[in-house]
Structure formats: C-alpha cells, structure tokens
UniProtKB/TrEMBL annotation:
Residues in ATPase F1/V1/A1 complex alpha/beta subunit N-terminal domain copies: 89-153
Protein name, as recorded: Mitochondrial h+ transporting atp synthase f1 complex alpha subunit 1
Residue ranges of domain ATPase F1/V1/A1 complex alpha/beta subunit nucleotide-binding in the record: 162-312
MF terms (GO), sorted A to Z: ADP binding; ATP binding; proton-transporting ATP synthase activity, rotational mechanism
Pfam families: ATP-synt_ab, ATP-synt_ab_N
Entry similarity comment: Belongs to the ATPase alpha/beta chains family.
Superkingdom of the source species: Eukaryota
Location of this chain's protein in the cell: Membrane
Entry-linked PANTHER family: ATP SYNTHASE SUBUNIT ALPHA, MITOCHONDRIAL
Keyword presence, Ion transport: yes
Organism: Alectorobius mimon
GO cellular component terms attached to this protein's record: proton-transporting ATP synthase complex
Signal peptide boundaries: 1-20
Keywords attached to this entry: ATP synthesis, ATP-binding, CF(1), Hydrogen ion transport, Ion transport, Membrane, Nucleotide-binding, Signal, Transport
Length: 315
C-alpha cells in the first residue's frame, strides 16, 4: 500500500506539471485580441485541443510515456499550430444607392475608418448613427447589393506613400491673414535660402506662389506711404520689385561652385487678361510662360494649357 501511494502521488504531481505547461502553451498560442472578443473565441481552446492528437500510437513495447515526454509532445504540437481566429468586425448592407451604403453591425467602427465590401470595393465610414453606419463607396455602387458582408479594416484611410520630399523642401509661408510687409518679404526670404544651395554647388528650384499677391501687398504699403500711384495704382518701381527677385535665379560656372537656382513664378490673371500690368512685367522678365485657362479646364482639356499664349524663349 505504501508503495502504491508513492506511485500515485508521483503520477498526480507529473500530471500537474504537464497541465501547467499545457496551459502556458495555450496562452502563448491564443490571438492577442481574444480578450476583447470573448464570444467569438469560445471554440478556440477546443479547436487547439483537437489538434493535439498524435498521428501515431505509442507502441505497446515501449510502455507508458513519462511525464516529460508527454509534456514535450504537447508543447511541440501546440507551437506548431499557425491557425488564428478571425476577429475582423463585419456587418451587412441594409441599403445602397447614389454611392452611399447603409450598413448594420459595425458597432466599434470609427469615423473615417476604411471598410471593404464582399465585392472587393473599398469605402469609408462617415456617418456613425445609433442603428447603422453611413459609408461612402469608392467605386461603382452597382457591384454592391443588399445583404453583402462589409468588413472593417480597423484603421483609418491612411496617407499616401511617403516620398520624404520634405527632407529637401523649405516652405516660407505668408498667408492672406498675415500683414502686408510679411507678404512682401516672403519671396525675398525664400530666394535667399535658394541662393545658399546655389552658392554651395547644389541645384535648387524655387516656386513663387504667387507674385500677384506680393505686388498687391507692395501697392498697399506704397499707397499708405503716399507714394505716387501709377498704372492700376501700382507704384512706379513695381517692375523693379519683380526683376530684382527673378534675376537672382542663375546657373553658376565651375569657378563659383557650379550650382544653379531655377525660378518658377506664378501669376494670377483676372478674367484671363494676360495683357494686364503685372503679367506683362513678369512675362518680359522670364524665359517663357505656360498660360492655363479656366474655360479649357471646364471643357475637359487637362492640363488646361492655352498653346497659343504659352511661349518658350529657350533654345
């Protein structure tokens, strides 16, 4: 009896050791989100347990396996499992029309979160109502019908693929809400930064968007300073305002580093009048112009370039 009791206690201790290792392996195999979705994962443990059956029976000649051998077999089988539970949140289409889908069932969806329909089309959730979600469809809504399954991505619309252009870009901003002196000085500040790269053997492109607003700011300051107004109430030195800015764009020879600065000024025309004061001044300074016309854009001609008024004086 004493000998049998010792063997029984050893067996109980061995099974407790196996159970603890078995439980630890199960916990490591369960998906991370299983605690957030307990109802959807009730069959995970039973599924993993069924997968633990060995493919071969232990031969009778070997006798009963020891506790360490059983534990190692169980752990190997658990760690070999790669299947995971599908925890995606899904809903169904209630109605579809005019590019808007009403979906029921997406209770945890967030605003501007991406979704995917069973047809493969993508959409974005915009309206979050108590009983349904309003989703805009990115494509032909005729491919979607009532009852289709909608799957939430669990993330927002994201952002375009980064090109890291801001690593070599400088923006000097003087918006319409800024004072006129700041709008007047912003192009010169940007040009000074571009000259730094030019003088150090690098190649820089500077875009002035736009010089019409700078001329208006300069006119405002000149009128407040009681300078004599000229054509269109601009001061007499408005041509010099832009010429001393654009002529600083140049290609340096090898003795001065071989760098370059290319200027691309933007001018806004009123009603397409290219013969206005500021447009004619800038046209006479630059090496050509690309004239974009609004009417061509509305007609579907894009890019809306007026080839008759666009000129190149290079080459």
């Amino acid at each position: 009896r004493r000998f049998v009791s010792v063997r029984f206690l050893y067996f109980v201790a061995s099974m407790a050791f196996v159970s603890s290792r078995f439980a630890n392996c199960l916990v490591r195999q369960l998906p991370r989100g299983v605690l957030r979705y307990p109802k959807q994962c009730t069959g995970v443990s039973s599924y993993l347990t069924r997968k633990l059956c060995t493919s071969k029976r232990l031969s009778a000649g070997r006798g009963s396996p020891g506790a360490a051998e059983v534990s190692s077999i169980l752990e190997e089988r658990i760690l070999a499992q790669t299947s995971t539970a599908n925890l995606d949140e899904t809903g169904r289409v209630l109605s579809i029309g005019d590019g808007i889908a009403r979906v029921y069932g997406l209770k945890n969806i967030q605003a501007e979160e991406m979704v995917e329909f069973s047809s493969g089309l993508k959409g974005m959730a915009l309206n979050l109502e108590p009983d349904n979600v309003g989703i805009v469809v990115f494509g032909n809504d005729k491919l979607i019908k009532e009852g289709d399954i909608v799957k939430a991505y669990g993330r927002d619309r994201g952002r375009p693929r980064r090109t890291r252009a801001m690593k070599y870009t400088i923006i000097v901003s003087a918006t319409a809400s800024d004072a006129a002196p700041l709008q007047y000085l912003a192009p010169y500040s940007g040009c000074a930064m571009g000259e730094y790269f030019r003088d150090n053997g690098m190649h820089a492109l500077i875009i002035y968007d736009d010089l019409s607003k700078q001329a208006v700011a300069y006119r405002q300051m000149s009128l407040l300073l009681r300078r004599p107004p000229g054509r269109e109430a601009y001061p007499g030195d408005v041509f010099y305002l832009h010429s001393r800015l654009l002529e600083r764009a140049a290609k340096m020879n090898e003795n001065f580093g071989g760098g370059s600065l290319t200027a691309l000024p933007v001018i806004e025309t009123q009603a397409g009048d290219v013969s206005a004061y500021i447009p004619t001044n800038v046209i006479s300074i630059t090496d050509g112009q690309i004239f974009l016309e609004t009417e061509l854009f509305y007609k579907g001609i894009r890019p809306a370039i007026n080839v008759g008024l666009s000129v190149s004086r290079v080459g």
